[in-house]
Specification:
The chain is of the alpha/beta class. The protein has helices at residues 21-27, 42-49, 64-71, 107-122, 125-133, 157-168; strands at residues 9-13, 32-36, 53-56, 78-81, 98-100, 149-153, 172-177, 188-191.
């Protein structure tokens, strides 16, 4: 039986509701939230509140069928995807449903990962790790990233943050995107078609 409510009802499709259920309840006290933590309980959870909105967070441990089932619920008028991509909803007829995403929400952290890998490769940390396992100490040649050139293909929210990080390390940054529009922290921009000029 559906819960009685006069406001907005949101079905959250996520396998670990305790991650933020308390936060959402405090932040939005007038909104009714229900959580579907598996594909088997999407319909049961939806029947309890008849949701207007679905908050769908897709990741590798949570099957796509859960998100598709939630998107097909009658009465849903808005689907908020908790990431940047929403191609997993392509099998569903989304006409009449507003679909929004959280593009850029992880950009800072993904850019930190890219920067960390650049530093690790350039500093030969992987080889040092291997030497450590073998109880060896052999100095390896080192060249700083400063004054090296980095090409960032795609200057969306992640690419721009990678460019910012590289610039802070003293690198020359080239960027390529479809329009070659100017970007802060990028020294020269190219279109994807003109990358050979870089």
């Amino acid at each position: 039986m559906a819960k009685e409510h006069n406001g907005t009802a949101v079905l959250v499709v996520w396998d670990r509701p305790s991650d933020f259920s308390g936060l959402l309840a405090r932040r939005f006290p007038d909104v009714v939230f229900e959580y579907a933590s598996s594909v088997e309980n999407v319909n049961a959870a939806a029947a309890r509140i008849r949701p207007d909105i679905v908050f769908s967070i897709k990741h590798e441990r949570f099957p796509i069928e859960s998100h598709l089932a939630a998107a097909r619920l009658p009465g849903v008028r808005w689907i908020q995807v908790g990431g940047s991509g929403y191609e997993h909803l392509a099998p569903v007829d989304l006409s009449g449903i507003t679909v929004t995403n959280a593009a850029g929400v992880l950009a800072r952290f993904l850019a930190e990962t890219v920067t960390g890998v650049m530093l690790a490769w350039n500093g030969q940390l992987y080889r040092y790790r291997d030497q450590q396992r073998e109880a060896l100490w052999r100095p390896l040649p080192f060249t700083p990233l400063c004054d090296k050139t980095l090409l960032v293909i795609g200057t969306g929210s992640i690419g721009r943050r990678v460019a910012d990080n590289a610039g802070s390390l003293g690198m020359r940054v080239l960027g390529a995107n479809r329009s070659a529009r100017d970007e802060n922290a990028i020294d020269a921009m190219y279109t994807l078609a003109d990358m050979s000029q870089a």
